[in-house]
What does this fold into?
Amino acid sequence: MLAIGGLAACAGSLPRLTSAQKERAARLWPGTTARELGRGRTLYVRKCSGCHTLHLPAAYPAERWSAILDEMKGEARLPEGEAWDIERYVLTAAQ
It folds into this structure.
């Protein structure tokens, strides 16, 4: 029960994407949907908070996030699709 509460607390502090951010993501990565970006946020909370404190997307510039996520997807053994959803969410929310 405590773990569920902890996940809820982590998710509550992460930003939800604005319409403008979702539109920008769709321009950067054609075909990207709001649903995929939302799934990226959910996966970021579920997959990443199990090992460490979550960082707000604005904590690092996009270039740094790309390097962090590239390293962490191997550590977490994330399937490529999940890693891509997380990356699109974090990079979109970081700007």
Confidence is low (pLDDT under 50) at residues 1-9. DSSP finds five helices and no strands in the chain. Residues 2 and 8 are 10 Å apart (CA to CA).
